[in-house]
Amino acid sequence: MRIKADNNYVMILGIGLLVYAGLFTAASLARFYGLGSSVLDLGVFDQIFWYILHRGAPLSTINSPFIERHWFGFHFSPILYALAPVYALLPYPQTLLVLNVLLVTSAAIPIYLTARHWQISPGLALIWCAIFLVNPYVQGGVMWDFHEVAIAAPVMGFALYAVAARRKVLFLCMLLLLLLCKEHYGLTIAGFGLLWAIQYREYRSGMTISVLGIIAFIGILCFLMPYFSHSDYMALQNNNPPHARFAWMLHKDSMQNGIIFVALSDVIYIGTLLWLFWFIFPLYAFVWLLPAAGDMAVNALSYVGAMRSFYYYYSLSLMPVLIIAAMRGGLIYSHKKPKLKFSEITMLIFAANLLFGYIASPLPLPYAANIWETRFASLARPYAENIAQIKTMFPEQKILSVQDNIGSFFTRRAAIYQFPGGLDKADGVILHLHLPFTHALAILGPPFVIPTSKYISIVQDLLKDKQWGITYWQNGWLVLERNKPSIPVNKADIQKVLDDMLAAQ
Prior knowledge:
By secondary structure, this protein is mainly alpha-helical. It has 20 helices and 7 strands.
């Protein structure tokens, strides 16, 4: 590969990535300032990084059962320590949003490098990068707050490039980083080992990598994670479907349900993944799909239906694999059947991703889904004054129960819970009596997690409870503090807002 000859194209790629990152950073921040983020995602990681800086361990209190828990018992992600110095410079949730966008965007770089290594023209290599960026699963991952898979996406891309270029040291380094991203990537490493073995007929080293990947997966899942989670380990439990991501491995009923999932909803999931590449092109380079097999199996067999949606982040790290497999498959197909040129295959795949990506886009574009109803006007931070006033009421040592979609503004503290959790422990409750979404699909997460009617009933009970005093009521922001006298406020006004919310919902 002649890098010098690519100077102009590399410049175009750099400018394109900056524009893309700038656009999605603005959209992600607009969603955050417009109260569209979730404390169970962004807020959890904000608190985890706060704990790493203050106590050296990734702890969180936000998730049920609302106790201080080690994050490695929920997701094994030691890679988070590598980002702690960046967070220390700017310890805000907005920092994590920007990091999420930059990490995902950077995954386009190894796609370009792989294309050029396979002697694909620099112009077509740029189009393959564009395919990645407009892909609906990638857009969903960019916009869904911050997650470890944002780190895994470029790592996965560089691991694939290392295979293509036969750079074994880089390959092994990327696999090690991948293992530190999340608990199930040992399965992905097993797939990478098989790919290396088949691609270069280095069966001993390839199979050794595969076996080590499987051992790491089992060791992390069955020993390390239970150790960190103590008595509330959920990933393998059969009695807590929302969190039992791997229950199908050990429980007969869960295995049967998993098979049913594969037979029904997962046909749609896998079909959608392949449709974006016209089905056949990734399959023509099937061996290059092996690193995706583990991740796809986890998503397909999990109780968590969201793991198969392009609005979520779960399939993000699959995209570099599918794109590079489709690229390789396109080369093979065009060689065997010259009537369809590789450039035409590239444009067909680009058209499919652009069309589906536009329709499903979370950006505020005409006729796009814009599931979070993002408005760039929210970058003006319409609630900044209210949030600043409420923050002064609760120093770090105060315990809070906070509504899901506003919780991330208050998570840099030792104890905070997702409302209505932790009411028996909380010193204060912070709510925003407003429905931030009207879109039917926005039930995926915030604002309330529980049904709106139940939310309103709990708020009404708090207003009647004499141990809770109303200490702030302004522009829909409601703050109650335990054993504090109420400020002068007409509760009928609050009730009217609650009635309007129920009617709107």
